[in-house]
């Protein structure tokens, strides 16, 4: 069954305390290559049957109206999960 992935991230001007905590922990664990971390949310919407343009539009509407808080978050991606990616 196809899966639509929705990625939501905090708006750039919004503080991200979880991302900041992760960013502080990475160097202590030996990961020194990263200068900033932002933590977001990922939703996977399973579809019965084929994903049409209409279904993708409905997923985007659901993402903007229900899955995200438009005051502090941006919907950054709504796409069908590539089967190769899903197999990882």
UniProtKB/TrEMBL annotation:
Gene Ontology MF, one: ATP binding
Record keywords, A-Z: ATP-binding, Cytoplasm, Ligase, Nucleotide-binding, Purine biosynthesis
One GO location term (cellular component): cytoplasm
UniProt pathway: Purine metabolism; IMP biosynthesis via de novo pathway; 5-amino-1-(5-phospho-D-ribosyl)imidazole from N(2)-formyl-N(1)-(5-phospho-D-ribosyl)glycinamide: step 1/2
Gene3D superfamilies in alphabetical order: Phosphoribosylformylglycinamidine synthase subunit PurS (3.30.1280.10)
Catalytic activity: N(2)-formyl-N(1)-(5-phospho-beta-D-ribosyl)glycinamide + L-glutamine + ATP + H2O = 2-formamido-N(1)-(5-O-phospho-beta-D-ribosyl)acetamidine + L-glutamate + ADP + phosphate + H(+)
Domain of life, per lineage: Bacteria
Enzyme Commission numbers on file: 6.3.5.3
Compartments (UniProt record): Cytoplasm
Primary localization class, coarse: cytoplasm
GO biological process per UniProt: 'de novo' IMP biosynthetic process
Alphabetical list of HAMAP family matching this protein: PurS
The protein's assembly and partners: Part of the FGAM synthase complex composed of 1 PurL, 1 PurQ and 2 PurS subunits.
Function, as annotated: Part of the phosphoribosylformylglycinamidine synthase complex involved in the purines biosynthetic pathway. Catalyzes the ATP-dependent conversion of formylglycinamide ribonucleotide (FGAR) and glutamine to yield formylglycinamidine ribonucleotide (FGAM) and glutamate. The FGAM synthase complex is composed of three subunits. PurQ produces an ammonia molecule by converting glutamine to glutamate. PurL transfers the ammonia molecule to FGAR to form FGAM in an ATP-dependent manner.
Family in the record: Belongs to the PurS family.
Record's protein name: Phosphoribosylformylglycinamidine synthase subunit PurS
Organism: Micrococcus yunnanensis
UniProt lineage: Bacteria, Bacillati, Actinomycetota, Actinomycetes, Micrococcales
């Amino acid at each position: 069954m196809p899966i639509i992935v929705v990625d939501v991230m905090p708006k750039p001007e919004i503080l991200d305390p979880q991302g900041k905590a992760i960013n502080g922990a990475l160097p202590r664990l030996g990961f020194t290559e990263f200068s900033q971390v932002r933590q977001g949310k990922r939703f996977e919407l399973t579809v019965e049957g084929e994903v049409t343009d209409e279904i993708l539009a409905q997923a985007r509407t659901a993402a903007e109206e229900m899955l995200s808080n438009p005051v502090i978050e941006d919907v950054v991606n709504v796409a069908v999960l590539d089967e190769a990616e899903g197999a990882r």
